[in-house]
Amino acid sequence: MQRTLFIAALLGAMGTTQAQEEPLNLGARPPLVVGITVDQMRADYLYRFWNDFGEGGFKRIVEGGFYCADHHFGYAPTYTGPGHASIYTGTTPAYHGIIGNDWYDRASGGSVYCASDTSVRAVGAASPDEPAGFMSPHRLQVTTLGDELKLATGGQAKVIGMSMKDRGAILPAGHSADGAFWFHGKDEGAFISSTYYYDELPDWAARFNRKSPVNDYMKDGWKRLLNEDAYDESQPDNNPYESPYRGTTRATFPYDFRDLAETNRGYDLLKGSPAGNALLVDFALAAIDGEGLGADAITDLLAISFSSTDYVGHQFGVHAQETQDVYLRLDRELARLFTALDEAVGAGNWTCWLSADHAGATVPSLGQSVGMPVDYWKPGNMTDAAEAACAAAYGEGPWILQYSNDQFFLDRERIAAAGLDVAEVAARVRRVAMQDPDVYRAVTRWDLAQIASTEDPVLSHLQWGLHPTSSGEVVVVPKPGWINYGRSGTTHGSPYAYDTHVPCIFYGWGVKPGATYERTHIRDIAPTVSALIHSPLPNAAAGHVIDDLFD
Ligand code: ZN
Ligand code: ZN
Ligand code: ZN
User: Fold this and answer.
1) In this structure, what DSSP letter does residue 528 have?
2) Is 395 exposed, middle or buried (0-12, 13-18, 19+ CB in 10 A)?
3) CA 78, CA 100: separation in Å to the nearest integer?
4) How many CB atoms lie within 10 A of CB 292?
5) What is the number of other CB atoms lying within 10 angstroms of the CB of residue 73?
6) By the 8 A CB rule, do 530 and 514 touch?
7) Which of 222, 240, 226, 231 is nearest to 321 (CA)?
8) What are the E-state strand segments in 73-213?
9) 3-state SS of the chain: helix, strand, coil percent to 5?
């Protein structure tokens, strides 16, 4: 098996070289492109887990594909919604408008969720009034790879997005997708969609839900894939830096999901375990077959986002055996997916890329235990102090509407009504924020606009993440490694390397094996895929083609 794959990879490489000596054929396209996002995957997981990977998953695409070693987000906030939007639009929150998972929306005067849409109803859930189905891509302000591919093929290209998370399915699929599907753990544990896409689920999806393997996965629970001594790249299983399941006191293998189900939201347990990734591959195979993805010469796009890695990372942290195990098992699931793609579309006929929507921070309490200068911070005192400073200067407020995604949203109407200059109020808030000992830096949006394109990674990341109208007036950056989170597990969202450095691998049709160690950005993925498959750029694409891929 290994040898066959190796020879196939070699032949693929030779084929590409020969093709380059022939005249360029700008009409050549693969029948299927698969975009893979691994939620919260840090770039170093490839190194740390490499020796425990099998041959057909991560190693297959790294060894047989093109690997970008220094791939970064290039903006903050580094959250799931913005991450998925950026990969598929080739640009950043400054343009696509997905400035967080949730944010303060000035038009409606409240918080909004990146995929929420009360004008649509659920499809495939127990009731059309299930709010988990009130979702669409309408807050995404630009086009995606799939939108442009569809338009360029007279609507013939099929574009499907799927994930355990709604936003991981919807934002990659774009505005004109055939469908997006996400997992709803309540009730039966099913993949659902919304009336934005369908009146009812396609037959293949409804059939999948009827025969769903969720109960088998619940019965299997979660134990280590390998013997415990294989996990020596991680902390001991029982450690104080991970969060036990609700109703339990120790985060240790094995986990019996039937015992845990009642106190841990039933089928939602699958989302936060390796079974969620397996279930998504099951569903992807059903979609490839049911939709005939890659079955004709018109290029189709399948966007798959593995969310379970993010839930596991949040609960157990970067250095837990559980986190190592979810990646070792994902590796085997990727191998199953790739083998199925070979069978359905033919080895060498499909193209894929794999990246992540953000990475994640070392658990600060673990970092402290080995002497790292990291800690926890809570913005509450800072926001209270900022409001008090404004009240003292301008009279009773509130002057601050919300602090979210490490941004202050000021009450522009109140400020205007008081005859004040919003930039001056923002500067006052900024000065208060800078007095918080846990804050590395605070800047106003006017500061950022005046700083020309900068080499300072933190400032340039804030610029790329700041939307001209939607974002807040003051942006705050805590110290490196400091997170606003509980004492166990971890999170992400910062402009620092531990949140921005993610894997990026291209593989398959058209991809010459190789690697680059130069800095590449998440916004480069869509332009590179566009160039590779000869399809139009998303309309606000701001990244560069990773040209080493084409040398
Ligand atoms: Zn995420
Ligand atoms: Zn553990
Ligand atoms: Zn997360």
Assistant:
1) H
2) exposed
3) 8
4) 13
5) 30
6) no
7) 231
8) 102-105, 110-113, 122-123, 159-163, 179-184, 190-194
9) 40, 15, 40
Of the ligands numbered here, which is closest to the C-alpha atom of 272? 3
Residue with the two structure tokens 């189709």: 300
* Position 2 pLDDT exceeds 50: no
| Residue 60 near residue 335, CB atoms below 8 Å | yes
Residue 60's CB: how many other CB atoms inside 10 A?
24
- DSSP 8-class letter at 160: E
In 363-399, DSSP assigns E strands to: none
- 298 CA distance to ligand 3 centroid (A)? 35
Are 30 and 350 in contact by the 8 Å Cβ rule? The answer is: yes
What are the φ/ψ torsions at residue 370 (nearest 5 degrees)? -110, 20
β-pair type (514-521, 66-72): parallel
pLDDT at 5 over 60: no
Residue 383 has pLDDT above 80, yes or no: yes
Closest by Cα among 288, 78, 89, 293 to 172: 89
Say how far apart CA 268 and CA 261 lie, in whole Å.
8
Angle, helices 274-291/203-210, rounded to nearest 10 degrees: 140
Q: For residue 213, what are the β-bridge partners?
A: none
Which amino acid is residue 317, in one-letter code?
G
Task: Please identify which of the residues 37, 78, 80, 89 carries the catalytic annotation.
Answer: 80
User: Residue 266 and residue 254: Cα distance in Å, rounded?
Assistant: 17
From the number of C-beta atoms within 10 Å of its C-beta (0-12, 13-18, 19+), residue 521 rates as buried
Phi, psi of 452 (to 5 degrees): -65, 165
* Closest ligand, as measured to the CA of 305: 1
Which of 538, 505, 512, 508 is CA-nearest to residue 523? 538
Active site residue 78: no
pLDDT digits (tens, 9 = 90+) for 441-457: 999 999 998 887 667 88
Mean pLDDT (the chain) is: 95
Q: Which of 217, 214, 234 is nearest to 226 (CA)?
A: 234
How far is Cα 189 from Cα 414, in angstroms, rounded to an integer?
Answer: 46
- The environment of the single-atom ion ligand 2, i.e. residues with CB closer than 5 A, is 237, 251
Q: Which tokens hold the place of 353?
A: 């890329």
Q: Which ligand is nearest to the CA of 163?
A: 1
Statement: residue 18 has pLDDT above 50:
no
Residue carrying the six token digits 């658990």: 363
Q: How many CB atoms lie within 10 A of CB 532?
A: 23
CA 243 – ligand 3 centroid, Å:
15
Shortest CA distance to 33 belongs to which of 173, 208, 193, 180?
173
pLDDT at residue 364 greater than cutoff 60? yes
Stated as kind and residue range, the H or E segment containing 521 is strand 514-521
Joined together, the tokens standing for residue 67 give 């690997």
| Residues forming beta bridges with residue 304, ordered by sequence position | 36, 162
φ/ψ of 527, rounded to 5, equals: -60, -35
What is the CA angle 365-366-368, rounded to 5? 65
Structure tokens at 354: 């794999």
329 burial type by CB count under 10 A (0-12 exposed, 13-18 middle, 19+ buried) = buried
Its pTM stands at 0.95
CA angle 465, 470, 476 (to 5 degrees): 50
